[in-house]
Specification:
By secondary structure, the protein is α+β, with helices and mostly antiparallel strands. The chain contains 8 helices and 15 strands. The strands form 5 sheets. Strands 1, 2, 3, 6 and 9 form a 5-stranded mixed β-sheet that branches. A 4-stranded antiparallel β-sheet has the order 5-4-7-8.
Length: 362
């Protein structure tokens, strides 16, 4: 199929301008991959009940909530959790000293006959807080210590140590999990801000490009997409789309180190054919998913983006992504997301065919 026939298939629309858009809709997924849906609206009477239920659900997934928070809130939760823990047991140690009568003893080194001091030198709440802090952090200055003849003090000491170890394990695990999250690696993956419709190997295709901003390669790269199309009654119909990479077909790309262009054939079997080639004006949003494995750890990371009708251009192609310098080394172009008219010829004098695109000498 030639470029001329491609223009006729696309309904004679302007080749250099994006598709005309229908009335503005809120997108489901933002360009950086975040969900843009709002929570359901609740009637005034049930707002409090819905709010309490939301808090209950969040507490049931406390681990996921903590790992998903921003670092500033994680640090605040870290400091607040230990401070609350110390204050709680400071109150309990002070209450124990009060109930045991230790606060009325003038000299804990020489208590009255028959009186057992549960914790030496707890004479105020400040001293109780200091003892709680020393117990949790196992500092052990030696001035304050529980008496072996006071079972209540030994039991409270054991409870504080057990709960303290659990708190430390939880907080430490959350820090490690947050640092090692694969989503951070996905932040180095970028999609082209616009998709293009043009010719690829004699076939009309929808094309998009992704790049890896870090020098650390990703392996087993797969790209899939879901088409959300508005039907009657504003219902969103979901249809899966396949993208392939050159002659790899549906096989994953084994190595992701330079910008890659992924293709979806726009034949009559494509769910996008009615919208892009026949001019049907239903609102749609194409959500694209890129999944890859980190070479060092094997962890899976995923990057998402979406394309609306007005973010797809006709009769365009991506400019060459790779070039050669004067020493014959490959270099990634800083303009690898730029597009050009599909009818513009490439420089055939020094072209390297990589991922279906010509790469000019730089």
């Amino acid at each position: 199929m030639t470029t001329k026939s491609n223009s006729s298939v696309l309904g004679g629309k302007a080749s250099s301008s994006p598709l005309l858009s229908s009335p503005t809709r809120q997108r489901l997924v933002t360009k950086d991959g975040h969900c843009a849906l709002r929570p359901p609206l609740c009637p005034t009477g049930s707002w409090r009940r819905a709010s309490s239920r939301a808090w209950l659900l969040a507490l049931q997934d406390l681990w996921g909530l903590l790992v998903g928070l921003r670092w500033r809130w994680v640090l605040l939760a870290f400091c607040a959790s230990f401070l609350v823990h110390w204050l709680l047991f400071a109150c309990l140690w002070y209450l124990l000293a009060h109930l045991n009568g230790d606060l009325a003893v003038q000299d804990h080194d020489a208590p009255p006959q028959g009186h057992v001091v549960c914790v030496k030198h707890i004479t105020s709440f400040t001293a109780a807080f200091s003892f709680s802090l020393e117990t949790q952090l196992t500092i052990g200055y030696g001035t304050m210590f529980p008496s072996g003849d006071c079972p209540s003090a030994i039991a409270l000491l054991a409870v504080q140590m057990l709960l303290g170890l659990m708190l430390e394990a939880f907080i430490t695990g959350a820090f490690v999990a947050k640092i090692a999250r694969p989503q951070k690696r996905a932040g180095a993956i970028q999609f082209s801000p616009q998709a293009v419709v043009g010719q690829h190997q004699g076939q009309t295709c929808l094309m998009l490009r992704a790049t890896n901003l870090l020098q650390r390669p990703l392996v087993d790269v797969k790209v899939s997409a879901v088409l959300y199309e508005e039907h009657e009654g504003q219902a969103l119909h979901q249809t899966s789309l396949d993208f392939h990479l050159d002659q790899l077909g549906q096989q994953p790309c084994p190595f992701f180190i330079f910008p890659l262009t992924f293709y979806h054939p726009l034949d009559r079997r494509s769910p996008l054919y009615p919208a892009l080639c026949e001019g049907i004006s239903n609102h749609f949003e194409l959500v694209v998913f890129l999944s890859a494995l980190q070479e060092g750890t094997g962890d899976t990371c995923q990057k998402r983006t979406s394309y609306l009708r007005q973010e797809i251009q006709f009769d365009r192609r991506f400019v060459p992504a790779l070039g050669l310098d004067s020493r014959g080394r490959y270099m990634v172009s800083t303009q690898h997301f730029d597009t050009a008219h599909s009818k513009e010829p490439l420089d055939k004098d020094c072209v390297v065919q990589i991922n279906g695109d010509g790469s000019d000498r730089m």
